[in-house]
UniProtKB/TrEMBL annotation:
One Gene Ontology cellular component annotation held by this UniProt entry: cytosol
Cross-referenced SUPFAM superfamilies: YggX-like
Keywords, sorted A to Z: Iron
Function: Could be a mediator in iron transactions between iron acquisition and iron-requiring processes, such as synthesis and/or repair of Fe-S clusters in biosynthetic enzymes. Necessary to maintain high levels of aconitase under oxidative stress.
Keyword Methyltransferase on entry: no
Record note on quaternary structure: Monomer.
GO BP annotations, alphabetical order: cellular response to oxidative stress
Taxonomy of the source species: Bacteria, Pseudomonadati, Pseudomonadota, Gammaproteobacteria, Enterobacterales
Organism: Moellerella wisconsensis ATCC 35017
Protein family (similarity comment): Belongs to the Fe(2+)-trafficking protein family.
One MF term in the entry's GO annotations: iron ion binding
Transmembrane segments: none
HAMAP family, alphabetized: Fe_traffic_YggX
Name of the molecule in the record: Probable Fe(2+)-trafficking protein
Length: 90
């Protein structure tokens, strides 16, 4: 049986996760507030980020970066900028 939650990302009721996919408090928040559809959108963004920035998910700093981007994307409405170009610093 599917769980219906109010997805804070989509701003509507949607099917919730079947189980907690991420550890800790953040994982609980995702489980309670992020739908399968929103999580799937994040997963594709995350894949792009990992490829773009050549991240290693075994690396603590890379995981921290991904977690920050995930929080910004899912809870703060920030889209992930993936364009392969970083302007040179002035």
């Amino acid at each position: 049986m599917s769980r219906i939650i109010f997805c804070t990302f989509l701003q509507r009721e949607a099917e919730g996760q079947d189980f907690q996919l991420y550890p800790g408090e953040l994982g609980k928040k995702i489980f309670n507030e992020i739908s399968k559809e929103a999580w799937s959108q994040w997963m594709s963004k995350q894949t792009m980020l990992i490829n773009e920035k050549k991240l290693n998910t075994m690396n603590v700093d890379d995981r921290k970066l991904l977690e920050q981007e995930m929080e910004k994307f899912l809870f703060q409405g920030h889209d992930i900028k993936i364009d392969g170009y970083t302007p040179p610093e002035e």
